[in-house]
User: Fold these one by one.
Assistant:
Number 1:
Amino acid sequence: MSRVKPQLFWQGRKKLGLNAAKLLPVCRTLESTANELRWIKQHVAETPSIIPFGARVWKLCDKRGKGLPLAYVLGNQPFGDLEIKCQPGVLIPRTETESYTIHLSNILRRSAVSSSKSDPADQQPLNIIDLCTGTGCIPLLLYSQLSRSLPFQSLNVVGVDISQKAINLSRQNLHHNLGAHRFPAPSDKSKSHPLQRSLHFLKADIFSSSAVDPILSTPVCSEQCAAQEAEEQQQQQQPTWDLLTSNPPYISPSGFLVSTSRSVRNWEPKLALVPPVERVDLHQKHFYHHYYPDDENLLPTQKGNVEYEEEDVFFARLLEIARTYRPKRVLMEVGDMEQAKRVVGMVLGDGKLRKLYFGEGTEEEKGGTVQIWRDDLVGFEGYEEIMDIGKEKIVVKGHPEGHGRSVYLRRVGVVDA
Amino acid sequence: MLAAPWVCRSCARSLRRSGVFVSLQLRKASTANPTLAGLPPVLIDRARKLAAEHQQLTKQLESDYEPTAAKRAGEISKVVAALQELDKTKAALDELNGLLESDDAELRQLANDDLDATKKHLETLGMNLSATLTPKHPFADMPCLIELHPGPGGTEGRHFADTLFRMYQKYCENKGYTARVLSYQEAEDRTPGLDGEVPISEAVLEVTDPGAFAAFRGEAGMHRVQRIPATEKQGRTHTSAVAVWVLPSFPENSTDAENDFNNPESDFYVDPTEVKSEKMRASGAGGQHVNKTESAIRLTHIPTGIQVSMQDSRSQSQNRERAWRLLRSRIASLRREQREAQAKDLRDSVLSQAQMSRGDKIRTYNYQQDRCTDHRSGLDVHNLPNVLQGGEILDKVINSVQSWLTAMDIRNLIAQEEAQARAAEGGSDKKKKGGK
Ligand SMILES: C[S@@+](CC[C@H](N)C(=O)[O-])C[C@H]1O[C@@H](n2cnc3c(N)ncnc32)[C@H](O)[C@@H]1O
């Protein structure tokens, strides 16, 4: 990273004042400095305190100038129309995550509206689970968007994380946004209540079956719909999760040193970003066994179609979960187009997942969806590009200049309106 | 062809005050058709045609109901009612006039007593009729965006843009409108101006009430300021300008909006493949790799070159959403302007000269003289501080412009009807000749 030109310094000081001079080294441009200074002042003006305005602004600029990310300095980050509290130790929600979450909620809302139009009596509960939830931003925004526009549907949302800090913060975020009346409160457990809405945050390691299986196998709100679901499951073998989302750690240990920005490296938790080595080793064995049961000792680079890197280990586990619990839709955030392709490769390379989400037979018969979404999807939903992955043609959505950001799976037979 | 919606009564009232009608009467004096309540014959013709159409529709609807016919009948029923009322009053007036010739002195006196009131009433009814005939602006019921752009030439315009911005904000507050700031861009140069003005390079205010577009559309144009700037050392008066654009926008979260955005027929439709999106200084891999705070969004609509950028919010998705709103509104507005330009060709060229284009100065705020003049309505008011505080004097100015706009609409309508009538006549003449 290059040093800021001295000329910029005096320009900044002259035009924006002394506070700005503190921000310039981290903000790097006058424009960005002016924006951050404005946000800091707004924040200070909005939070009452006995300490004088100027002193507080100065203090926050000082902190920010030392490199602390702005969201930690201010203690929050906007996410859709929510305000998500942020604390060191828990990853700051990213704008890319925000973008596809909004898009997802649009998909779910439209589908629910159109299915309830075709059959008003058919008011399916909507069950959503987010693994590796961090601040809880994804389930909170989905809950917020869906509970407002679908008042008559029961909605059950769960967020899971391994870190106690994250779970505490996500619960805090629920109450913070409830307090600001940004969405309706989850309904209490009284059975008489016809509308069920719930939002829970639970601590669990997603690699530990004993911890995570009980959560995954009961995506239910009230006992009433539990009974109904169980019956359904027996009868039609239907999965009960309408959507599984996850933004898991996906950066390789070497990538962490090279491709992350300094502020990420120095201030954000590595646990949230880089899959731990022990896990990689442990799981790799399992994973290779799964794809290549005959040849456990081959190295990944020697394999045929299925490419796999160590930073992909969470995706392997997520797909394993998808195999078992068969959620109707899966959305996984990825680091770049290469990783997106590898994840798609894993889906196509696994017979059961392929059958579930891609389909078999001719183009028309297939009916499932395996897609890659780029950044900058909202407003550019119409953009589509076809990419060859393995022998298959995969749809890539979003503005062509956007990075590959997520992999979206939709089960055969499930339709998005 | 008339668009269905109509101008409200209060506009009709203000129209009378504005006195445009007097000149219309004079202009029309030579036309062959008999005048009614001093209304131009084309308007009466138009109303009679619509009344005939209404009668036919009603008959048709009695035998079999058809929704589009019913809708049309509903739309023109106001005109029919106004015309009937007018005819009735005209008949009453004729009767009174007859009575004035009477031999009975008492009767003459009675008639005389009633005469003035009836004439007045007839005049009002005439206004009503023309108001019902005036096409309402297609965006009239929508919320709007008010955009402020300082004119070229220094800090002074940027300072005054801030004052105008606050003027509209306060005006909305006073009138009970809901206004929210979509964008407020401070200029790089931060020299303070008069009364704590901050120089701004651009600002966008959204007024979310339905009908805000109709209320504010008269504000569009160049606003000129004459005063001694805060930075002026020799005490010279400067003249600067701020461009105000008023664009229609959609209510947030409306299903209409969603429908319109996806409907290629709609003015608000924007083909995303024609839009270039730049996240300013998008760098590196994104996602978990960076926690940048640059949330700015810039959208460029390639066919028209319209460019919008938003960076007010910390949330990129919010900036993106606002940028799309603004882009759609600007494009819709442009399309409407283009259509209007086409319609203008049909009309009298004399009339179209009175139309204001974006570049014309519409109002002057003169600090030394404590005066605000609107160059269209010709209204001249004092107490500039009240104007700049969005007070009742500004309301008076804005109302005078509304009247002026309505009057213009009616003149345009009449001109258009005449042009069409002429074209039709010309056509039938030719036919006759061809027949010989
Ligand atoms: C990249 S962060 C994503 C946070 C949040 N979903 C977001 O989008 O901002 C990954 C999260 O996964 C959690 N995590 C890491 N290992 C985990 C595991 N084995 N089981 C469950 N959560 C885990 C971390 O604590 C961290 O909060």
Note: Residues A 91, 93, 97, 132-135, 137-138, 160-163, 166, 205-207, 247-249, 271-272; B 288 surround S-adenosylmethionine (CB under 6 Å).
Number 2:
Amino acid sequence: MKLRDIFTTALANTMRTKLRTFLTVIAVVIGAFTLTMTSGIGAGINKYIDAQVDAMGDTNQVSVMPAQTMDANVGLTAGEPQEYDPDAQGTVSDFGIPSMDEEDIEEIEQIENIEFVDPVIFVDIEYLETPDGTRYTVPSAGFASEQSMVEYAAGGPGSNAEDAYELVIPTSWLSAFDIDDVANADDVIDQEVIITAQDLEGNAETIEATVVGVAEETITGAGTSPIPSFGLTQQIAEINNTAGGTTIPFTYIQAMATVHDLATNEAQIKADLEEIDMVGQTVEDQMGFIGGIIDAITWVFNGFALIALLAASFGIVNTLLISVQERTRQIGLYKALGMTSGKVFTLFSTEAIVIGLLGSVIGIGLGSVVGVVGNALLINGPLDSVPGLTLYAIEPLALLVIALVIIGIAFLAGTLPARRAATKDPIEALRYD
Amino acid sequence: MTASPLESPPLLETENLVRVFGTGENRVAALQGLTFEIHQGESVAIIGKSGSGKSTLMHLLALLDQPTSGVVAMRGQVVSDLKPKQIAKVRNTTFGFVFQQFFLNAHETVLENATLPLKIAKVPKAERHRQGTEILEMLEMGDKLKAKAINLSGGQQQRVSIARALINSPEILFADEPTGNLDSETSAVVEDILFGLNEQGQTLIVVTHDEDLAAKCARQIRIQDGQIIEDSVVNA
Ligand SMILES: Nc1ncnc2c1ncn2[C@@H]1O[C@H](COP(=O)(O)OP(=O)(O)OP(=O)(O)O)[C@@H](O)[C@H]1O
Ligand SMILES: [Mg+2]
């Protein structure tokens, strides 16, 4: 028999018992559908993360933290009391999280290829007054370093100069400046705002700042609240930490270091940081971590899908065993008329493959449609506030792999019944009732 | 017309052929030591009562079954020495079978059933249809080409099974009760075809208990209880 004849015969045979084939195929469809969904969701979210990372692709920033921060038992240091050591002070502070002081920052600044170090400072803004005199609360101001991580609808990041008091606002704040359309975001640039902060004694002090940019929101949360520039942040922090003319020395849990040509110097920077007991992480490192979690979740679901397929493969074995039983006579006839055992085996394996093919085509088709439609409904509906979000992506290669895996499993399941068919004795088979 | 046995080995020969089915209480010795030769171009009728072992013998000669003991040889070659693939090839291209129970594929069409050996032999579809149509028309089944086998009468099924046996122009035709279900008129058509082919050199081996059909064969082998009781050449 020619391969084409084998295929059409197998197809005709599978179609003869439609209900049985349908039920067997359903099990395969469930597996194929799940695999398509999980891999598509994984691909979609990873694509989104990649896009976000790419969006800040020009960032040359490394986030620097004391190495102990990475230890699991930070803040829970049980055991013996430690004797006071003035030099060790400053290594442990804020909520038991190890922190850095000015000295550490200077040390980091001295590392080769580090151009600028921007400690992450939590500042407390009392209110922000727009030119029309309205005062707005600023529950959590952004960190200066975020200015280089966001995408701009208008303007750009502020300068790193100590005496430049500049501000980047998120698109959601445009309404505070009477701008209803993001398209007119440019109008807000260069407008003057007044920022008021309290010192430790509760006295309000004001600083004038200039709006220099309008930021789009991103997955990291950067760009969701106003971001003061480096100089402005320092100035507010100084007010926040001053009482009666005395300013408490700052400590930082993290600093953002701007690196000259990060791509080439990444290894050197990380090594040098390690030497001074610091850890450096690039944006990719941090995002890669999220990607890793998503991959892990994807694989867990893929595992479930594979279990479903394992169950489906027993369905295939069962269906084909019944089929072989029912068609014993036909097998006997084929062999009596000169079909070789090998071809009989191929014929029945092909029936298994047909079931696998049907199941994967339907399941992958269904999964893709549900994924694409569901994605469209979600990102245009409940999730439309997240810009650029994708929850599902079609990856042709992944779909092909899924189809091949399923057809492979179907083929393996088919080998048992196919062997049984192939080894039948023609006369015995012909006499079978 | 028959080649001399001295010149070339016989087309088919058996030696002390024994076929036993089952064991213990169920043991049936269907064939009990048969030795004979069949030469190229012969027409042989195997006659006997029901259960005498005719079909069993035909299956052994047609290489569909293996003897419990004894030898079947084809053109001097002991068949049990052949590889399964070679035997399959012989069955597909050299033999034609008309089974007593027809064994048609109920859900396939008349044309598909009749051309199955060609399909197995990898003949292209168009050619299969051409040959199938031709032979089915000869058997007066031309108007049923697309009918499903399950919807045919017994006689029609028998003719499809004959068409299938003849489709590969076999050197040897094995026919188990080929006219058992046919009226005298259709029987005559079938007999004309079979004996016409025999005259052109095809070897014909017919299993029957129809004495009239048997008498039309050049040679009759009569079987009783698995043994040959008569081997006669009538029309020689
Ligand atoms: N596969 C088998 N298993 C057990 N017994 C069998 C088998 N095939 C045939 N027999 C037995 O062998 C004997 C001969 O059977 P066979 O079919 O050759 O008879 P037959 O001469 O063709 O009869 P009929 O004219 O009714 O077709 C019978 O007794 C039958 O029951
Ligand atoms: Mg019989």
Note: Residues 92 and 120 of chain B are 8 Å apart (CA to CA).
